[in-house]
Amino acid sequence: MTDPTRTPVSSLWGLLAVGVVAGLLSGLLGVGGGIIMVPLLTGLLHFDQHRAHAHSLAAIVLIAISGAATFAVAGEIDVAIGLALGVGGVAGSTVGAHLMHRMSPSALRGVFGLIMIATGIRMVWSGVTSTGGDLDMVASLLIGVSIGLVAGFASGVAGIGGGVIMVPAMVYLLALSQHVAEGTSLMAILFTAVAGTRVNLANRRVDLRQAMLIGLGGVVSALIGARLALAIPSTTLSRVFGVFVALVGLRMVATLARDRRVTSG
Q1: In the chain, what are the domain boundaries?
Q2: How many CB atoms lie within 10 A of CB 55?
Q3: CB neighbour class for 59 (10 Å; exposed up to 12, middle 13-18, buried from 19)
Q4: Who is most buried in 60, 91, 136, 248, counting CB within 10 A?
Q5: Which conformational region is residue 159 in: left (phi greater than 0), alpha (psi within -120 to 50 degrees), or beta?
Q6: Is 77:187 a contact under the CB 8 Å cutoff?
Q7: 213 Cβ neighbours under 8 A, 6+ residues apart
Q8: What is the value of pTM for the model shown?
Q9: What pLDDT is recorded for position 237?
Q10: Which residue in 194, 165, 8, 190 sits closest to 94, CA to CA?
Q11: What's the pLDDT score for residue 234?
């Protein structure tokens, strides 16, 4: 009997390569890297949709540690906001991960595609001026918990870290700088990724050895990405990558719609 925690193709170099690409993106933009890991795992390594989401989320733990450490050394993390995001993220990610296991693969692809499109649009419009004003600590923490809930839910459902939601929300609502928002996002992602992975392990969706290989591949590249993020303005790169992400999301949604038409026909 085939072990259900294994995938049809589990190339050592393939897993490491996926991690390297995701890690670079994670450190550079303050996201977990799931927006690139999931398509690579399903498209190149033939993971089924549920396991791609689950392995992505588990690998994000190692990748986020690497990126967050670089931002922390540079003093670009708001620890209080990061903890608030983490508290909300744990609750949201747990609920989202449970929901993920009840969804069909086609529904997961559709949700992920829509998140990709929204992410791309956010990156293209990343230069929008912050709407956040002078908030007291209590208000900031409450907003942080709320952001964490939404980001955590998306994390659990889509196998992403949630940074694509947290970073712009912190910039626009809490008036944090791009660098601080990215560093704080990576800190909070640790909470959401661990919470969601606990659920996925309980549901036997994760082979930790494979997830660790992906994560290890991203550790060094996340350090490089974080250093680049601290050294250069990220607006142009964010917009270019946003176009790519949106196109990939559109392709996923279009493919899903086409498959449904073929099935119904």
Answers
A1: 12-264
A2: 33
A3: buried
A4: 60
A5: left
A6: yes
A7: 12, 15, 16, 19
A8: 0.78
A9: 65
A10: 194
A11: 62
Structure tokens at 172: 């626009």
User: How confident is the model at residue 118, as a pLDDT?
Assistant: 82
**And the tokens for 73?**
């050394």
d(CA 191, CA 50): 20
Helices (H) and strands (E) in the chain, counts: 10, 0
Sequence-separated (6 or more) residues with CB below 8 Å from residue 15 = 45, 210, 213, 214, 217
Give the C-alpha distances (Å, rounded to integers) separating 186 from 112, 156, 165, 169: 20, 16, 12, 14
10-residue averages of pLDDT along the chain (265 residues): 45 91 87 84 89 92 91 94 95 90 82 81 66 77 94 84 83 86 92 91 91 93 89 73 79 78 67
